[in-house]
């Protein structure tokens, strides 16, 4: 893999990366810090110097008391930029959604051949002992992250316990502000004109059977989310109007320390 030797020490190189550079195309990252009781607001900023930029996530450093920051970088026979995935151990929890829309560099057919080569790797005398080949986009991504951290240690196990991955956006998280890592966007990472494909299509071709189900549920979610957002905007507009109407009173209270 081009770039791994130069960017990561030998003992920390990812073991099970098979395909092209992974990219996000929509805001899909939910982060929770220990000091926050609720999910993050839009004010939570992503790190300007992410240590894992190729694929999805890199957040600001957290206090040493917080334990795990799930990090990801899928990668490529062509390009891999996953420097320092040892920092995958630093936040309270990280939720990543809409995995079927992740984009990989390289044309679809070529990536499909690589995946089929990966599927042929099995235990010779008892395939049920592994390696296990996940087809669902979220599980493929999960296995990639697992190969980048010390997942057999208590610290690594705790890190993976705090990572949640979903194909769509399930109920608890559909009303939560989502974020995207700009450094991982395809439009910024790939040269214009380069071929790419989605993990959802690739997974469907190698045995994932629930693309239609996820798409149907996503259509329902989008309708509900649009209604929820319209209602939220109306409430926010009323709050702003009320605040402006009471600006004089608020000013006097502020002068008194309230």
From TrEMBL:
GO terms for cellular component: cytosolic large ribosomal subunit. One of its GO terms (molecular function) is structural constituent of ribosome. The keyword Ribosomal protein applies. InterPro entries: Ribosomal_uL13, Ribosomal_uL13_euk/arc, Ribosomal_uL13_sf. Coiled coil: none annotated. It holds the Pfam family Ribosomal_L13. Gene3D superfamilies: 6.10.250.3250, Ribosomal protein L13 (3.90.1180.10). Keywords: Ribonucleoprotein, Ribosomal protein. One of its GO terms (biological process) is negative regulation of translation. Component of the ribosome, a large ribonucleoprotein complex responsible for the synthesis of proteins in the cell. The small ribosomal subunit (SSU) binds messenger RNAs (mRNAs) and translates the encoded message by selecting cognate aminoacyl-transfer RNA (tRNA) molecules. The large subunit (LSU) contains the ribosomal catalytic site termed the peptidyl transferase center (PTC), which catalyzes the formation of peptide bonds, thereby polymerizing the amino acids delivered by tRNAs into a polypeptide chain. Belongs to the universal ribosomal protein uL13 family. This is 60S ribosomal protein L16. It comes from Saitoella complicata (strain BCRC 22490 / CBS 7301 / JCM 7358 / NBRC 10748 / NRRL Y-17804). The lineage of its organism: Eukaryota, Fungi, Dikarya, Ascomycota, Taphrinomycotina.
